[in-house]
Each structure stands twice: as C-alpha cells, then as structure tokens.
Amino acid sequence: MPSSDSEDFESADEGRISPNKRERKKRLSSSNYSDNLEDQDNKTTQEPVLHKVAASVKDNIPKDGWDDFDIEEESEPTDIPQKEEIKTAPTEKAQASIAQKIDSQKSGWDDFDDWGEEKDINTKDPQLIPKSQVQNVKEIPDPQEVTKSDGWGWGWGNSLLSTATAGISNLTTQVSQGISTVLETGIGAPDPEELARISAQNNAKENNADSERRNSTETKAEPNEANQSNANEGAFPFGSLLSGVTKFVETTGTKVLAGGLDTLETIGKKTMEVLQDGDPGLAKKRAMLGLDSGDKPVLSQVLREARAKADEEDQMKEAKREAKAVHYETLFDDFEGLVHLEALEMLSKQVSIRIEERLRSADPNKRQDIKETLQQVAELCEMPDEEDEEEDEISEGTSRPDALHERLQRATRDIGLKLQFQPLIKQFTETLAWLETSDVTITEKAVYKKAVSDLAQTTALSVELYHKTAEMLLVKNRRSTADEADALTQLTVVLTKHISDLATQFTEKLTNHASEDKEQINNYITNVFLEAGNSSKYIENAFHLALPIVQIGAV
Amino acid sequence: MVDPIFDYQFRLILIGDSTVGKSSLLKCFTEGKFAELSDPTVGVDFFARIIEVQDGTRIKLQLWDTAGQERFRSITKSYYRNSVGALLVYDVCNRSSFEHIPLWMMEAKRHIEPHRPVFALVGCKVDLVGSDNKNGAWREVSCEEARMFAEENGLHHVETSAKTGSNVEQAFILVAQEVYNRIQTGEYKVEDGWDGIKTGFNRPNGMDFNLLEAETVQSTCC
C-alpha cells in the first residue's frame, strides 16, 4: 500500500458517488433523510441493527463532519464553499458511505453496543465543527495542498464522520479517543470518567479489531474500501491524525511512524483543543490569519525532513574528511598556489585597466595601432597546437631534473629576467627519489596520495613562477614584448609537459603495483590523469593572466 | 604543510620600508627560523600559520609579505585591497623607516577602503639595541615615541626581534584577536567578493546558526 496515493483514496468513495452527483445532490437536499436510509435498510434486511445506524446518522448529520470528505473526493472545489452546499453534502455522503458500509461491514454491527458512548464523545467537541467548516472554505482553492498537508481537517472530519458511518470509523474514533485520554492522564490530569471509558474502549477495540479483520477478508473484491478501513485502522492507533491523504494511506499496513514525533503532534492537537475550549472562535481567527492554511507543513513532517537532512550532512562531512586527504584544491591552496594565482589575477586586472585607460586617452588615429599591437601580442601568446616533438638536444648523461632545468632555462633565455627554477627542480628531484624507493609495502593509496600532492605542489610552484615573472616584468626597465611572449609560451609548453610527465611516472608506479584490486588501481590512474589535466589548466590559466602584463610593455 | 583545520582565515598584509625586517619577522613567525641574510622580496610572498584566539577559535593567518623596495610600490599597492589587517613595520634602529609609517598607513587606508583594517605598529630588530654596536646600530626610535604615535592613531604597538623571537607571536596574535573581536561585535563580516575574512573549510556557513536554532526549539518545548 505505500505506493498508493490520494487518488486511490479518493476513488474509494468517488466511484460510487460521482455519477450525476450534482443532480443527486439537488434531489437529496430536498428529500427526507430517513426515506433515503430506509431504502438502504431494505436492501439489507438481514441486518436488523441498521435502524440504529439510521438513527445515529440522523443525529449526527448536522455536524457536518463530512465536508472534509466532500472536498477531497469531489476535486471540484469551486462548487462547495457555501453553507447550503455544506449542508447538502453530508446527506449525500452519509448515503454513499452507508451503502458502502452495508456492503463491507456485514459483520461489524455488534459494535453498536458502544454507540452511545461514541455519540457522547463526538458531541463533546462541538467547537470542532466550525473549525472544520472554516478550514474547508479556506482550503478549497487548492485541493492538492489539502491532500498533502491538512492533517487537522482530515482527522477531525474523520472522527465526526465516524458517528455517521458507524462500523469502520467507529473503531477509529474509539481508538483515537483512547489515545487522547491516555494523553490527558499522562499530562497529569487524570479524569475518572476518562479512565472508566478506557476500559470500555478496550473492549470495544477488541470487538472492532475483530470485525475489521473480517471486513478486510470479505471485501477483497472492493480493494479501495479495504484501503480505507485499513487506513483508518493503521493510522489512528498511533494517534497521528496525519499530514494528509498521502500519509494517511502510506501508513497502512507495514509503515510504522516514529512514536516520538507522533506524540508531539498529538500533544499539539491536544493543546489546540484546550485553546479552543476557552475560545471557540479561535478556529475562525486562526483560519483568518492563515495559520491553518494548507501550505503549512506538519510538524512531524518537518522534523522528519530535518532529521533526514542532518543524516545526509553527517555522511557528507565524513566523506569530505576522507576525501580531503587527497583533495587537490586543498593541497594546491596549502602550497600557496591559490594565493599566487589570486595575486597574479589582481595584477592582471589592474594592468588590463591601465591598458584600457591608455587606449581611451590615446589619439584616435593611434588607437587602432595600439589595438593591433595588443592583438599581435595575444597571438604570440597562443599555445602551439601540436607539440612538435622537437629536438631534445639534452645529452644522454644528464639527470632528469637537470634536463628539466635546462628546458626551462632554454625556454626563458630571452625573457631578460633571472627566474628561480630551483624550487621546481628540487621538488622534481624529490619526487623521482620517492618513486625509485622500491618499497614493496607501500599501498596503492599512498602512491595515489603522493601523486595528487606532488601534482598540486608542482602546479603551485609553476603558478608562483608566472606570478613572480609577471611582477618582475612590470618593474623591468626595458621591455622586449615579442621575446617575453615567446618565452612565456615556451615556458607553458615545458611546464604542461612536465606535469604530464609526472602523471605518467605515477601511473606507471600504480600500474606496476602488485595489488589485487585492479579496479581501484584503475580508478586511481584515472584520477591522477584528471588531476594532471587540472594542473595543466591552472598553468594555462596563469599564463593567460600574464598576457596583459606582456601586452602593456608594447603599448 | 599547514594543518588544514581552521575556522576563519584572515588576510594580513605587512608593509614598511625595505630591509626593516618584514620577511624575517614572517619567517620567524611561520617557520621559527632566522637568517642573517636574505634576498629582497620580489613583489609579494606568502606565508601562513594557524593560531588560536582566546576562545579557542582557530584562525588561519594568510600573510602577505610585500616588497619594501620603491620599485615594487606600484605593484604592491594592488595587493592591499583584500586585507583585513595591516602590520606597519619599522626598524627601531632606522629613524626614517619610522618616519615613513604615516605614509604607509595612509596608503593602506586608501587602498583597503571601504574596509577599515586593523593596524598594528611593529618595531623590529630590538635585539640590535644595546648590543655591542658592532653593526653600528643604535636605537633611533624610542619605545615611548612609537607608543605615543600608536595611541594617537589608535594602533596596537609592539617591539619585536625576529632573531630572538621576542614578541613575534604577540604581534600577530594581537591583530588576529582584534579582527576576531570585530567579527564578534558584527563590525566585520564574511563577504562575497572580499577575501579579507573567509570561513575555514571545516566551518560551513550557517552551521552555528542551525545549532542555535535547534537549541531554541528545545527550550520552548520543555
């Protein structure tokens, strides 16, 4: 049943009522109640007790417990609102429901011994009636909302309804009343009357449960009705008057709600009841203030959602902590890469502003020239499409860090600055040394961590290099834009290649790792390449940020 | 590497004439090291350290060590903007470095606007004072004079030595605590697009708020 929704529920009565509803309504509104009931009565002569039902229906009809149902079932809210309508509705509903009862409750009549008590209970709460009326009028504009979250109207409507529908609802009211009784005594105001009633109700419960069981077996042909009765049975024992039809149906069968939440809710309802005892008009006021409006979420629902959210957050935090150990961005930040990039960006922005100022203040004739120059510099700073595997005239004997150093120096030899490559070289040397230590006990995870960390550090050092270069270019006395542009482009090529070289080193180490978990290894390898891609992006980003600094030397 | 767990990050900038000892002060503070000789700073360098303020809140100080050399002046001024605190550094044995402090302060105020940073006046190299004067160093700025200037301008004042480590931590904690106090009073806020104050990785925005709310609910219940 958990999957069934309000639509299913609607159809429980709808199927029987909807045809020619309005016509029937007109007819019924002018007809004698007992006449109609008599009809039903005749059909079920084997149930003499039904007279009692008829009587109770008469007694209870003016209470209007029905109009809740009316709204939910009709799904044409615009028709309902006014008092006339509300009056007519119950008759027709009572009819329909009784017809239903007769079908489904053939053996439920022995419950009527408790009936007098039941009436008592319902007439005890007359102040509820205006409330449900007002609510209905309020809620009409949006039937969807009503279905979702109108726990109150639904619940009370139900308990009033029970007077009229006897069988099924008899049970539910008994039980819910029982719960509020328990609540009262629990709060510390034991009422002997109530206590006495509890024992009577316990008996009633047994009877009802019995009949209920039989009902559900007898009415298998009418699944929707069974739903309804089950819904009542399932929902009310927990005292929750529920957040709407959806919840109402969901709770049937297996789903058991968390007791604490529902107790809270019951307390809340009890409080409302007490408030209304003192001021029956409160219901109207509340409705006017919109406090009962359909879009207000039910407490239990909110709490449940909050709890789910908290659980999710906890899980996320845990995962985060775990992931942080190998979190590239965090490491990049720790190696001061981020702040160098940020500082470079500040410089870049400021220089761009200066370039624009120069453009604006320049002679209109010269402006085009300046633009062209800027464009030319930008073109010089375009990364070569294909890395033409050019002459690596580095002699065989040189160590790899030295080879890197040589490449870096060659790339930047015309820039006219003394750049510090030492940190990069040192870091590379250390990485190579680490990789060569053939420690068999090292886990694949450790290799992966080292890979991410080293990539982040190399990237941070590279970004720092661009930042320092940009600063030094800005204070350089004689600029040689073309050389600078070329040097920076070459530098970028060397650095991105260095990154992919590093990544390859680590993935080779991972591939050769004697691990069972090949899938994990593959995941790590993929991630190393991903982070290497990330690194290259940071480096290219830094290079682009340096462009205005090269450009301003030319204009 | 720095322990990544912190609640806030404050960005502080160190400014002052060249060779007054900004980088040495930072190296002492972040690495506990001191070198007699060091290269002049190019543009800006970065240091970081996590400290705790009085209530145990962990603060990551991101320290911007600017070049004091005149030729970098045009560059360094672009770095002021996102600072929540500024340490005005002078050499107690160098009169002119102290005399330039008002200029540094004005410059910082102008570039950090509209934000109002916490300033601290930090005298360096007190270890040279009273030594055998082999280096030819005499105190050229008296502590009283500096203190007076600080009081007039509403600055904290501290005299330090990166060599002995004397008062170095205090200089930074002073500023961090003041920034933190201003956060508590609501004067400073974490703002988008301003990096003077950031929340740490382990403190998602609004977590405190949620806790507070939960407590309120509880108390109304019972």
UniProtKB/TrEMBL annotation, chain A:
<keyword id="KW-0175">Coiled coil</keyword>
<protein>
    <submittedName>
        <fullName>Jg25035 protein</fullName>
    </submittedName>
</protein>
<dbReference type="Pfam" id="PF05334">
    <property type="entry name" value="DUF719"/>
</dbReference>
<feature type="compositionally biased region" description="Acidic residues">
    <location>
        <begin position="67"/>
        <end position="77"/>
    </location>
</feature>
<comment type="similarity">
    <text>Belongs to the FAM114 family.</text>
</comment>
<feature type="region of interest" description="Disordered">
    <location>
        <begin position="383"/>
        <end position="403"/>
    </location>
</feature>
<feature type="compositionally biased region" description="Basic and acidic residues">
    <location>
        <begin position="207"/>
        <end position="223"/>
    </location>
</feature>
<feature type="compositionally biased region" description="Acidic residues">
    <location>
        <begin position="383"/>
        <end position="395"/>
    </location>
</feature>
<keyword id="KW-0597">Phosphoprotein</keyword>
<feature type="region of interest" description="Disordered">
    <location>
        <begin position="1"/>
        <end position="151"/>
    </location>
</feature>
<dbReference type="InterPro" id="IPR007998">
    <property type="entry name" value="DUF719"/>
</dbReference>
<feature type="coiled-coil region">
    <location>
        <begin position="302"/>
        <end position="329"/>
    </location>
</feature>
<feature type="region of interest" description="Disordered">
    <location>
        <begin position="199"/>
        <end position="235"/>
    </location>
</feature>
<feature type="compositionally biased region" description="Acidic residues">
    <location>
        <begin position="1"/>
        <end position="12"/>
    </location>
</feature>
<feature type="compositionally biased region" description="Basic and acidic residues">
    <location>
        <begin position="139"/>
        <end position="148"/>
    </location>
</feature>
UniProtKB/TrEMBL annotation, chain B:
<dbReference type="GO" id="GO:0030659">
    <property type="term" value="C:cytoplasmic vesicle membrane"/>
</dbReference>
<dbReference type="InterPro" id="IPR027417">
    <property type="entry name" value="P-loop_NTPase"/>
</dbReference>
<dbReference type="GO" id="GO:0003924">
    <property type="term" value="F:GTPase activity"/>
</dbReference>
<keyword id="KW-0342">GTP-binding</keyword>
<dbReference type="InterPro" id="IPR005225">
    <property type="entry name" value="Small_GTP-bd"/>
</dbReference>
<keyword id="KW-0547">Nucleotide-binding</keyword>
<comment type="similarity">
    <text>Belongs to the small GTPase superfamily. Rab family.</text>
</comment>
<dbReference type="Pfam" id="PF00071">
    <property type="entry name" value="Ras"/>
</dbReference>
<dbReference type="GO" id="GO:0006914">
    <property type="term" value="P:autophagy"/>
</dbReference>
<keyword id="KW-0449">Lipoprotein</keyword>
<keyword id="KW-0072">Autophagy</keyword>
<dbReference type="InterPro" id="IPR041818">
    <property type="entry name" value="Rab39"/>
</dbReference>
<dbReference type="GO" id="GO:0005525">
    <property type="term" value="F:GTP binding"/>
</dbReference>
<keyword id="KW-0968">Cytoplasmic vesicle</keyword>
<keyword id="KW-0472">Membrane</keyword>
<dbReference type="GO" id="GO:0032482">
    <property type="term" value="P:Rab protein signal transduction"/>
</dbReference>
<dbReference type="InterPro" id="IPR050209">
    <property type="entry name" value="Rab_GTPases_membrane_traffic"/>
</dbReference>
<keyword id="KW-1003">Cell membrane</keyword>
<keyword id="KW-0636">Prenylation</keyword>
<protein>
    <submittedName>
        <fullName>Jg12942 protein</fullName>
    </submittedName>
</protein>
<dbReference type="InterPro" id="IPR001806">
    <property type="entry name" value="Small_GTPase"/>
</dbReference>
<keyword id="KW-0488">Methylation</keyword>
